[in-house]
Every structure is written in structure tokens, then in C-alpha cells.
């Protein structure tokens, strides 16, 4: 057993006080073990806590603190200070302790054993629990963790359950736009704080001295509803109020479908326990300008629904803003956390494989021209720009922006870019992309941004990064066909990306296109059935028609050798100037014209972006090279590239 000195470090009896709803100062506790609750989604950890008198097994670590266990800052026997927590009664006599803010004091490896415990107050570790959490399903466990139902009460740091601060309604004889503010006392962290809450009139909210129409927010939030943590929300609750910080909002997106046209945007909320996504459609999308990032709001009356898999955050549920939703600005949200990042250095990102998601920060050193490409997902045109980012590792990486993010990006003087959940891609080497699962920020007010800005400004002229020229050429990435043909197929387990100036020597005119699935976004080859329909194996559907998709088989050559490649859809369309459907009509109407269109490619020069990858076919490995881009040769730019190559070779020869 530990010495009495160590024993005195723990806040003996504090757990019992928490369960009795007594006021408790930050407590010194010891973790005696933890278990990961089985199931999909965000990991959840259950803790066994010791205060020197009692072992308590019904403790939960807030999701945003999972890193403490994953990084081994919390381990068996660790002594820590519990600065903030929430306590909720899930059934009579059973309370869950949610740890919201933890400060590690003594690592478990140093403490090495259990601090003395009064055995009369000990439950048998994790085992003697009713119901047994050891055998509890993830859904049941989630229900206990979230159980702040309409009749439940949640207290923070075991003060009386915090209710919604009183908000006076606008007097009946006052003008609709007049605001009434009221002073209310809110108890959090064992302190009394005066909070000034602004209440809206029947149809207007005054914000920054301007009126914002919120037609769906016709009443103030019901003051009798308790504020509940995000982690407690379920679709089965009728009355709840959130107090949360807006950490991000997307641009407004317009859409058109069979039911008509509309618009929507998403915003993301954070409190001490978890994050959650909210979506606002059509009239509710007018809320976009009212919500400000990093500001705190009271929210009630939204629908709680199961979240989609492609959400920015790992949460079981999301909110749907409706006509009954009420949102009001809170001026007392200083204690709520801000969005946190787990930045991965750019040199380390270069070692990752595709489809990983990382938080990245970097100075934007160069911006490509805005261009329009055809999306492979839905076959629609989309705007794209590329940003070149660097951090203190001085290794540049490309970040691609799409759609409105690309079109609205303002070219500033080397802004600091921050992306949460940037997607790692292997296009033209390892690069990053801002996807629907990403949060994109320019010069956010966080410490890391100021540090990186100071570092970059102090570089001066000592470090330069290649800007994006019109063809984005990089001499280091150029190869010859001799280099590619000499690759050992068995030793090439990763795709090779390279650039090359080459001529088209031959086009396979017999198989320049194929019948593909007519379903939007699917380009799988279809087979014609006996009943004159077209079957797609990928979609497992039969269709009355098909579409024609280009797939050019090209023999390319440079000064060193030749090589067979394939060019697919949008790249092939750019090279010949016709989409697949139009080229097929030409073939049906005039075979000679069709052949001339393809023959016109012969001996044309392009700067190609190529990818070579080993594929296995009939148990035989072969190297397949695909054309990713084909750009016409710009004589001036290519001449400069050749001059740079000559000078580089001169330096190499002189060094020898």
C-alpha cells in the first residue's frame, strides 16, 4: 500500500459528495483501470476511480478527452485532478459521472500501486454493477451515457441542476424588435457568474446593431427546460436545451431535384462533452448570417436524428433545424471549450497512405489558377484550385479546394491555412484535399497560427517555394519512358507518379469507347442482355439504355522509348475535343470523320501527368500506365524548363 503521504493527496470522500449532489471543489482522484466499450463509432472509455475511501466504476471519460488514454497520459494508478464533471441520474440510485476536464498529476508508472481504500465502501471493481456494464451492449451503454431524458437532471460539479437562464419575453405593448436583457445567476465550476442573455422579440433578434429576421424563432427559449450536455441527446427526448459553441459552418449550398429547388447549410456545435452537427434547410438556412463561429448559443426544439456516416464529426446523432427551433445568443459561454486540432507535420503526412484524414496547418506559398474539371463522382463540372502549403519542416504539400471553397478563396499575402480532417490522396504523389468531411479555416486565431506566421515572416528570402506555373511543371518529377520501362514490376508495390513530354504515335481506333452504366456517377461497363437491356454488374441493375464513355488506348513516345497508356473520360475528351456520346454519333453518321478525329491525335505533343501501377491479371503482374492529365505544350514555359535542366546538370557535372 502507498504511504500516508500519498494517501493524503487524494480527496477522500469526494466521490460520495458528488453522488450526494454536494458542492465539490476540484478533486484529486486515482484511476484504477479503464475499459473500452465495444462497438463501432467513436471509442468510449469507462473508468474505475478511487478517492481514497471509495472505488467508483460508473465513470465515463468525455469523448474529447479520449486522447489522454490513447496517448497514455491516463493509465492504471495515475493520480489526476478532476476540474470539471457532470453527474446524471440514469435511474433511481444509479448515477453516471462524466469527466469533462482532467489534469494529470502523477503518472501511474511512478505511483505504481493503489492508494489505501476503506474496504467498506468498495464495490467489487468493474464486476458488481447492476446492470452489468461489462456485458452491456454499446447501444445500452450509449443510452446510459446520454440519459438526460425529459425528466432527468444533470448537475455540473454536483451543484444543483443547471437550468436555462431566465429570459424575459418581450412585453406585449413593446415593439417587435425591442430586446429585453435580464441578469441571471448561473452556477458552474462552483462559482456564481452573472450572465447577460439577450432575448429576441417575436420575429427579430438584435445582433451587432442590425436586425436579423428569424421567422422560425417566434418565442424565447422556455426557461423551465434544463441545459443538457450534447452527449446526453437522444431522439427520445421531448424537451431539452443545449448551450454550445459554434465551431464551424459551411457555405450555403443550393440544390435541385424532383421535389424542386432548395438550399441548406450545416453548422457544428461543441460543449464540454461532445460535438454535434446541425443542418438547416430552405427558410431555416437564413440563419447562416446570424450564427458566428466561436460564439455560444442556446438551442432548443431541433429534431434529433441518427447521423450520416460522412459527417465531419464522430457522433451518433445530428440536429435538424425546424420551424419550432429556437436559437439565442449566450453571453456567458467563456467556460465552453473551443475547437481543438491534432496537427500532423507535413513531412509526416508525406509518409501516409491515401484515404487517411489529418489535421494540417501550413503557410500558403502559392495558389494555382482556378480551373473547371468534370467530377468523376457525379460527372458534373466543379471548380478547383490548388494551394501549396509549408510548415516548419519546409516540405511543401498540395492542398486542393473544390466548388465554392475554390471559387471564393481570396488570394492574400501568404495566409496560414488550417484544415481539420483533410483527406490524404495519392494524386501526383501524396497530397491533401478538402472534402465534405473537412473544416477549412484561413488565419484562425489559435496559438499555432501565430507561431507559424512568426516563423515564416522570419525566413525572409532564405527559403523559397516554387509557385504554380500554368502547367505546374516540376523538373524533379519528369521521367523518360526508358525510366518507366526499366521498372521492375515485382518490386513496384506503390504507384509511380511522373510527368513527361511525349508524342502520340498511335491510337487504337477499334476500342476508343465502350458502353457504360447510365446511372449518374457510375462508369462501369455494361453487358447487353437477351431482352435488349443493359446490365450493370456494379449497380446490379438492368437499364433500357446505356451511355458511351471514352477509353483511349494510346502509344506514346519520347526520345528514349515508347509506352502504351490509357486515357479515361475527361482526359480523353480534352485530348480529342469530343465527349463519348458525341463521338459515337459521329461514328454512326460518318465512319471516315470518326477515324479522322482519332487520327488527328497522331504526332501531337503534350505534357502528360502519368501514373504507373502494377495490376494482377490472370495471375500475371503487369505495369499499367494511366494518363491523368494531358496539357498542350507551351513553348516558352517548356524552354525555361529545359534551360533549368541544363543548368542543373552543369552543377552536377561540376560537382564531380
TrEMBL record:
<comment type="similarity">
    <text>Belongs to the replication factor A protein 1 family.</text>
</comment>
<dbReference type="GO" id="GO:0005634">
    <property type="term" value="C:nucleus"/>
</dbReference>
<dbReference type="InterPro" id="IPR047192">
    <property type="entry name" value="Euk_RPA1_DBD_C"/>
</dbReference>
<keyword id="KW-0235">DNA replication</keyword>
<dbReference type="Pfam" id="PF01336">
    <property type="entry name" value="tRNA_anti-codon"/>
</dbReference>
<dbReference type="InterPro" id="IPR004365">
    <property type="entry name" value="NA-bd_OB_tRNA"/>
</dbReference>
<dbReference type="Pfam" id="PF08646">
    <property type="entry name" value="Rep_fac-A_C"/>
</dbReference>
<feature type="domain" description="Replication factor-A protein 1 N-terminal">
    <location>
        <begin position="10"/>
        <end position="105"/>
    </location>
</feature>
<feature type="domain" description="Replication factor A C-terminal">
    <location>
        <begin position="497"/>
        <end position="642"/>
    </location>
</feature>
<dbReference type="InterPro" id="IPR013955">
    <property type="entry name" value="Rep_factor-A_C"/>
</dbReference>
<dbReference type="InterPro" id="IPR012340">
    <property type="entry name" value="NA-bd_OB-fold"/>
</dbReference>
<feature type="domain" description="OB">
    <location>
        <begin position="240"/>
        <end position="323"/>
    </location>
</feature>
<keyword id="KW-0479">Metal-binding</keyword>
<dbReference type="InterPro" id="IPR004591">
    <property type="entry name" value="Rfa1"/>
</dbReference>
<dbReference type="Pfam" id="PF16900">
    <property type="entry name" value="REPA_OB_2"/>
</dbReference>
<keyword id="KW-0539">Nucleus</keyword>
<comment type="subunit">
    <text>Component of the heterotrimeric canonical replication protein A complex (RPA).</text>
</comment>
<dbReference type="Pfam" id="PF04057">
    <property type="entry name" value="Rep-A_N"/>
</dbReference>
<keyword id="KW-0863">Zinc-finger</keyword>
<dbReference type="InterPro" id="IPR007199">
    <property type="entry name" value="Rep_factor-A_N"/>
</dbReference>
<dbReference type="GO" id="GO:0003677">
    <property type="term" value="F:DNA binding"/>
</dbReference>
<dbReference type="InterPro" id="IPR031657">
    <property type="entry name" value="REPA_OB_2"/>
</dbReference>
<dbReference type="GO" id="GO:0008270">
    <property type="term" value="F:zinc ion binding"/>
</dbReference>
<keyword id="KW-0238">DNA-binding</keyword>
<keyword id="KW-0862">Zinc</keyword>
<dbReference type="GO" id="GO:0006310">
    <property type="term" value="P:DNA recombination"/>
</dbReference>
<dbReference type="GO" id="GO:0006260">
    <property type="term" value="P:DNA replication"/>
</dbReference>
<feature type="domain" description="Replication protein A OB">
    <location>
        <begin position="346"/>
        <end position="443"/>
    </location>
</feature>
<protein>
    <recommendedName>
        <fullName>Replication protein A subunit</fullName>
    </recommendedName>
</protein>
<comment type="function">
    <text>As part of the heterotrimeric replication protein A complex (RPA/RP-A), binds and stabilizes single-stranded DNA intermediates, that form during DNA replication or upon DNA stress. It prevents their reannealing and in parallel, recruits and activates different proteins and complexes involved in DNA metabolism. Thereby, it plays an essential role both in DNA replication and the cellular response to DNA damage.</text>
</comment>
<dbReference type="GO" id="GO:0006281">
    <property type="term" value="P:DNA repair"/>
</dbReference>
